[in-house]
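Subject: two folds for Thursday's group meeting

Dear M.,

Sorry for the delay on this. The cluster queue was jammed most of the week, so I only got both jobs back this morning. I'm pasting them in the order they finished. Each block is the input sequence followed by the predicted structure tokens. Could you check whether the formatting survives your parser before we put anything on slides? The first protein is the one we discussed after the seminar.
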Amino acid sequence: MSQRPESRWQDLADELPFQQLDIVRRRAEGWRNGLAGLTGLLTAVLVLKGRETFTELPSWAVALASGLIAAGFLLLLAGTLLAVRASHGRRTEDIVTNGAVLEEWTEQETKDSQRALSRAIGCFVAGVLLVASSVGVAWTTFQSPARPSGQSVQVTTVGGAVCGRLAASDGKTLRLVTGGAQKQHVRAVAMTDVLAVAPVPAC
């Protein structure tokens, strides 16, 4: 004789109190794996690209973004540890053999695991928001490198080619600023020696 659906549903409902802890811990395992994976991914991305991202930021923005990232990672790490606590429980050396004690322990452990999982989710959300905020700081305060003033030109003379930034010209002499930012000097080229002048993106 087949069991009526109502009886089957009642049997499942009667079994739920005995499965609460397993349900919470399976859910916590999923969050633990997700938190660990996200933390590892963010670490890899920021280690590989972090220095390039912060290169062009003012010092205050670097300090702020670094602080937000550090706080975000600490929260993600705390969330991972809380998820581990929720999925594996506390370390115990006693084996419960009494039914009433086991019931009490299961109820308390279910509550503790659920609380730890809720805190882990809170840490996850807060950590992601802090890391996202650091990215926002980097984007909104990015400073493109200052370009040196003056058009870069390549001057072809009877003695060869010279590339530099055009500084001044009085009709007789063409003055070019050559060299890098640390070692700049002005080079004067007589107009009688100039064969051609062509603008270039950079020297």
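Second protein, same layout:
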Amino acid sequence: MAEINPPAWMQAGSYPARTDRLVLSSLLGYPGFLVDESTPMRIRQGIKPSYQNQQFKARAAPTPNMTVIVSAGFCFIDNHDAGGTGTYVCVNDADKTLTVQPAGGAGQYRKDCVVASVYDAETAGSVSEWRLEIIQGTYAALAGAATRPSLPPNCSLIADLTIGPSQTSVATGQIFDARNFAVAAGGILPVASTISPSRPHPGQVLYQTNLDKFVYGRLDGTTADMVPKATSWTAITFSGAWTNYTGGVSEAPAMARITGDGRLELSGYVTGVAVAAGATATIGTVPAALWPAYWSRCVIGNSLASGYGTVRVDPSNGAITVINGDIAASNTVRWQLDGFSARAV
């Protein structure tokens, strides 16, 4: 429904706080979680990204004790008490120290959660404020059985804390980052792959910080890898007596590249020592920048002996090896690499 004249709140006078919250919602990203899909006016809530994502980061005290420190930053939290209520901006302008409740006795383990929470009496309860707080978990008999407690409906999870029997301090090893990062519509979202939104909006680009990798959101709510740009052909480094074969007419030298759809390609004609049937020989290596993420292999031809073999590239060191697969071949000294094309990334 279109407005012909500017609404009153753009000019002067008083208006509901929800109006401002909806304006903020319009500037932020599409809902990132399945629970929000039925309410498209919600946003992808979470922490504002920053250099190395230091905003609202939970850390141990310099001398560990039963506290955690949450750094300064901005957090966007949607109202889940009622759909379409709008977004709150929560600002922490300095380190905030939070007290962890004492640990239980023998055989008592729990998982606590550090959260940024909004309480709004307009939609639920009688309190109107936002808090940085620790929600205490229930006790379990085993460490692996401890689960997250029920969290406030309007909150952004910051960290999980593991609390063991008679524990007297919370060290770095007991603090597990669980932040989600909010982003303006259309921006790239930096987030660990372990806590990525379950349903990024179509075309949304995510930079997975722990994998140094880009993925994008698909129409069905899943993600797919960004297609890498093809690299330039680069010469391989030969091993031992192996070298480029130059006995023919304009034979191409041995080269390697990554294609635009993420395949490792080899090209060229190489010669070297005889490889006995069933034996393996190392031809050389591809440049470190082209080392594949997986073992890559392909059947190739040997024109001199009319035989065939398998060429492989090792993901751990980029080594190119050839296995003579033709039992009848004995003088296999020329291999054509042009048939090699295998998944690399």
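Two things I noticed about the second structure. The helical segments are 17-27. The radius of gyration is 29 Å.

Cheers,
T.
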